[in-house]
Amino acid sequence: MIFKDKDLQCADCNKDFIFTAAEQEEFESRGYTNSPRRCTSCRNERKARQNSSTVGSYRNDSNIDRTRRQMFPAVCSECKKETQVPFKPSENKLVYCSNCYNKVRTGR
Ligand SMILES: [Zn+2]
Ligand SMILES: [Zn+2]
Rounded to 5 degrees, what are φ and ψ at 36? Predict the structure, then answer.
């Protein structure tokens, strides 16, 4: 099959662009039967935007997960250092920092 350069109009920027014979050949080899609806620069822009948005949302999600695990400021009953605990500390409950918690657990 012989390909010829085709003049097409971009659906995004309405500019005329050339769907070159080489591009048509590539399309054909990938099994695409439709002509591209966008010029090369608009296609690249779309691709870049999609890539960055998926990467960005993935990163945001993992950040939200980490901050959503609520931590409460507390003072360690053992060494009086400020620490954070994953539960709401109450007056009559002993709170330990991770160091002292391990000490208390293994020491008794
Ligand atoms: Zn375009
Ligand atoms: Zn401590």
Answer: -65, 145
